[in-house]
Amino acid sequence: MRVKIIRFIIVSLFIMITIGLIYFQAIRGQYFYNLSTNNRIRVVPLEGWRGRILDRNGFVLADNRMTYDVMITPQDVVDIKSLFRFLSEVLGVNQDKIMETYRRRKYAPFAPVVVADDLSREKAMVIEENKYRFPSLFIQENYKRLYPYGRNSAHVLGYVGQIDLSKIEEVTEYGYSPQAQVGKTGVEEHYDAYLRGQEGGLQIEVNSRGQQVRLLSIKKPVKGQDITLTIDSRVQQMTMELLEEKPGAIVVLDMNNGEILGMTSSPDFDLNIRTSGKINSPFLNRAIKGVFPPGSVFKVLVALAALDSQKISVSTTFKCVGYYELGQTKFGCTHAHGQENLIESLVHSCNIYYYHLGLVLGENIINRYARLLGLGRLTRVDLPYEKAGLVPGRAQRLASSQKRWYTGDTLNLSIGQGDTLVTPLQLARMIATVARNGIEVQPHVLMAIDDIVVNKFSFERQMPVSPEAFQIVKKGLRAAVTDNEGTAHVLDVPGLYVAGKTGTAQSQPGKEHHAWFVGYIEGQQKDIAFCVFLEHGGSSHNACLLAKEFLLRMQEEKML
Amino acid sequence: MRSDLSRKIWFSTIFIIGMGLAALYSASYQNVRVPPQIFYDQLLCAFVGVLIAYFLGRVDYRKFYDAAYVFYGINVVLLLVVLVSGRHAMGARRWMEIGGFSFQPSELTKLSLIFMLGRYYSHRRPALSFSLLTKAQVIGREIIFPFFLTVILMLLIFKQPDLGTALLLFGMFVVMLFASGTDFRYIVGFLGLCLCLVPFGWHYLRPYQKDRLLVFLNPNIDPLGAGYTIIQSKIAIGSGRIFGKGWLSGTQNQLNFLPERHTDFIFSVIGEEWGLLGALLLIYFYFMLVRCGLTIADQVKDKFGMLVTIGIVSILTLQVIINIGMVMGLFPIVGLTLPFISYGRTSLLIFMIMVGFLLNLSKKRSAF
Question: Which of A11, A173, A367, B214 has the maximum number of C-beta atoms within 10 A of its C-beta?
Answer without folding.
Answer: A367
